[in-house]
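Suppose a classmate hands you a notebook page containing two proteins, each written out with its sequence and a corresponding row of structure tokens. How would you begin to make sense of it? This section walks through that situation. The first entry is reproduced here exactly as it would appear on such a page.
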Amino acid sequence: MRLDRILRVRPNATVTDTQIEIRTHQSLASIAASDWDACACPETADGGRPLDPFTTHRFLMALESSSSIGEGTGWQPHYLSVRADGQIIAVAPVYGKTHSQGEYVFDYSWADAFERAGGRYYPKLQVAVPFTPVTGRRLLTRPAFETIGRAGLVQGLVQIAADNGLSSAHITFCTADEAQAGEQMGLLHRIGQQFHWENHAYQSFDAFLNSLSSRKRKQIRKERRQARGFGGRIMALTGDDIHPRHWDTFWRFYQDTGARKWGRPYLTRAFFDDIHHTMRDDLLLVLAMDDERPVAGALNVIGRDTLFGRYWGASEHHPCLHFELCYYQAIDFAIAHGMQRVEAGAQGDHKLARGYLPVATHSLHWIAEPGFRNAVEQFLTAEKEAVEEDIEILTSYGPFRKSTRVEGD
């Protein structure tokens, strides 16, 4: 599916008379990294880390150059750019999808219902970071161009989908602010749920534990003791401490997990080489070592104020080692580096007992066929009520003490 388009329009959702140019790109290499990152991570102008490492040019380019996306994967790049007054003011990571795998905002039931009614759900357009259920901006704009940039991206996305007879377009794991703006532009808003850990100025892991109920505090201490009883040591590596041999090991872990969860791994081996070269300072690799033999590992990506848990794998089972490497080591790192939160990936009610509380996630959807759109809208209304109720109930069952929380002491 090729959607080579250049649109010259005035955004419907703005009062400006500025004409903009909306263009699709089949490769991120056709957009300069400086232009993309000026929209995706303008905060890095001060030399710091990006808020969202996953929408940076180097991360998305690693997916493309490693063939983790592209021909034969069901993720065909169609990046959008919006240009005004001679400069790119907005971009979006857009993909043509021939399936719904690797998205984590599940629309399989929509596809099934539409196709049973005689429609063709695939291909569709997806604004997302492939295989990455992490909330962040998806309508990426330069500062001061938020309104016109977002409007241009949404207008271009919808027009390209409609002109090519596609069933739908989806913007997944966007921010709450983008969700509100998208609703005002006529898109359908969907609510989901994840579990995140918040740092309330804790000075140590023990200070975090002191904020929990006695039973949960004892449970976590017991799990950490059990995990460390596997007979070896745990290493947390970042930057130049990560070596190619570590990626060989982690690739074996990742393949095993990917085969069990998804049938085949989403990422290629080359992807890990690419991110080693371009963003190893933004990676935290936690390995459990039995002498010099790695037995398990967890990969995290370091943002400006958030640690993002991404992948886990093991060559053998040890009690509670998964909890230690994926959750408790991440909390340790976040506290030590003054990070605001840990996002440990999609789903997982078991995270609740370990200090990760439910939070809402957001996505936006455009449906071409009016009758199908109405049915999806009714479904989303009912689903929203159920998700919000679930978040409220789960939060009430959280592990924290019911009395005033002790923070940072």
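The notebook's second entry, a different protein, reads as follows.
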Amino acid sequence: MWTSAKLLRAVAVLQLCLSAGAAAQVPTAPAATPVAPATPVAPSAPIPVPFEQAVDAAASALFEKAAAAMGKDDKIEFVIDPLIDGVTGVQSVASRTIEQRILEIARTKFAKFEPQPFMNVFLSRTPLVLVGTFTAINNAGQVSAPRDAYRVCLTFADLRSQVVVAKGVSRATMQGINPTPIGFFSETPVWARDPATDAYIKTCQGTKLQEKIDPAYINRMLASALIVEGIKAYDARKYKSAAELYQSALNTDGGDQLRAYNGLYLANLKLRNAPGTTEAFGRLVDYSLKANRLGVRFLFEPGKATFIRDKQLSAQYPMWITQLAKRVEATTSCLDIVGHTSRTGTEPANDKLSAERSAAIKARLVTAAPALAARIVTHGAGSRENLVGTGRDDASDAADRRVEFKLAQCT
């Protein structure tokens, strides 16, 4: 017989079973389909603006940030270590124009900043030093694509604290810009990787705010100031003074720089000192081969593998060839000669032309030193390793039409 308590327990069990059965019949919602993570959207490239506007934007940002970082009411001295191309290290008409505009902006908008010449007497007062690069780039960041904009990079480094205190960057369109190298750089015979130039570029482009300045840049600064004075003397046709300044730089700690060797060669050439010119070119070759990258600016007839007929430009080539042959022959290494062309022309044509030019240089070297015949290999890189890459085919991209020499182990 069911008691009240038993009846209540039975009802409870029945309700529990019914609830479980109902729950089992409820359709299960389908599992959610995994959603692929969104692909990060690459930031769009900065929009290049006209040259003057780009310079003003970068320079104004630089001074504004430096004023905030320094926090001083009194004058702030600064010097400009001449701006260069961020790949070749060349000073150009455009980079000089930027320097002049920077000085004008300081004078009219930021009178707190007091410019001084880039000379040792002022460097000893540990001012701010302004370094900057002006470089042809592909605005979308495609390394092998044609250059279609210029990047302006300006950096203030405080020599007292040895840290970067301000930066200003912008991008300029290519119109209305004169990238022609100034006199000294348009006449230098050799391009090579140079630690001094690399340290300068790293200080401008490879540092962040409050980071330490590259010690390699600081250690070469006093010698660099002498070289800068030498370049100014050379461009003013004061060749004797220029030669003395370059030699003084070479005798200074950190003065073992490509610009000093190029300058000593050019000054002796202008002074018609034939023995000094030959000796200087030999030192230039030794310095560059030590870094295992020597790019010589032989000028060829357009589309040909023969030297330009202008004797004023090619008169020194036989001496260059002799010195190159002599220096390489004295080593136990083999030599790789690589011809280069500018971007003008089709790729197959450029490959063929660059290979023909490197072979022509080999033939001349072997004539000067027959023992080198079995130690030299040649090939052409066409326009694939352009340094400037603008395809202007003038003095501004002469480095793209170089012949390069690299030492290698003989196999």
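A careful reader of the second entry would note: Residues 166 and 189 are 35 Å apart (CA to CA).
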